[in-house]
Amino acid sequence: MTDATAAGATAGGSGASGRRVLIAADKFKGSLTAVEVAERVAAGLRRAAPGVRAEELPVADGGDGTVAAAVAAGFERRTERVTGPLGEPVTAAYALRGDTAVVEMAEASGLRHLPGGRYAPLTAGTYGTGELLRAALDAGAATVVLGVGGSASTDGGAGMLSALGARFTDAHGTPLTSGGGPLAGLARADLSGLDPRLARTRVVLASDVDNPLTGPKGAAAVYGPQKGASPDEVAELDAALARYARVLADTVGPRAAEYAGAPGAGAAGGVGYGALVGLGAAFRPGIDVMLDALGFAAALERADLVITGEGSLDAQTLHGKAPAGVAAAARRRGVPVAAVCGVLSLSAAELRGAGISRAYAIASLERDRERCMAEAGPLLERLAERVAADFLL
Q1: What phi, psi does 52 have (nearest 5°)?
Q2: pLDDT of residue 16 exceeding 70
Q3: All domains of the chain, ordered by start, with CATH?
């Protein structure tokens, strides 16, 4: 692997003085947050090219780090004590600016909140996400961006809707317990008690996946194993989600069945489906939503070069991940894009197709994976110096 994979002509210049660089990268999962990535890249650029004007705009695609990116862009960080995925109290944050809130479901119902890191594929729930949404409504939010990803649960968003006033009961009228497994016994759904403020709230479902609710590409089949589900549990959860969709169709009509096959319904263990049916949410690719919320378009107008990136630039990057969204927007404005990453597995042609002129990988500087992770910050600064040499000097 070379330290810089060329995929087109670089943008030269006689000097960096006055050159404006927009740093819009996602996190390097497991080593650096998006905010830290931006800080390290800016430090490397300024060391190599003291006259450069670097603007830091950390980005996210709706998953882990979405609230942090919003706060870095000027949103106010607010915290709430909510119910964790297994019922224990956790502290979760959301972001607010004016009447727009950014809610990250992983903050309340994410894998990181599983006690001791032990998976609970059948019983983990999303009640806390609903509580976080309610807190945003209490704060006056008229638009809510619901970023989904990193979920510990496969409950179809039933827990989230329950926290907002819905009722899900078995054949005896007993409320279901938490998780996707109990949905197998669902007999009746009642959405009439949902918070009335939802009817006048614009909810945008921000996700980087377009899976349906059920089936071989559904929430349980594709993402259940990542949450500790065995093959038998995957089948159990898929059947439970299918029953959930049938009961909701009996409650709200055919649109509930249609939503089960809609893009994004299977996001975050089916929270996407719950949001579409119960919250009246509109699905949009997460990076597009976040770029709008973060004011990316205005920042792009000021930029001569964009630097984006994430931990691994690979085939998944090309399907709705943050760097692809950033590069596509920059290409439409004719602004060149460089990318930084931990590991690079895209070809020059794939990079060029995504609108990325050149990519730089930490793995080209340090072969040992553990050192790459532990020393990601200083190594990233060195990569930024190379970006400066190639694009600014």
Answers
A1: -70, 145
A2: no
A3: 4-57+301-391 (3.40.50.10350), 66-287 (3.90.1510.10)
pLDDT digits (tens, 9 = 90+) for 21-64: 999 999 999 899 999 999 999 999 999 999 999 999 999 988 88
| 261-289: pLDDT as tens digits | 999 999 999 999 999 999 999 999 999 99
pLDDT in tens, 292-341: 999 999 999 999 999 999 999 999 899 889 999 999 999 999 999 999 99
Asked if 6 contacts 377 with a C-beta cutoff of 8 angstroms, the reply is no
Residue 45 near residue 384 (C-beta atoms within 8 A):
yes
- Cβ neighbours for 164, distance < 8 A, ≥ 6 positions apart: 130, 133, 134, 194, 195, 198, 278, 279
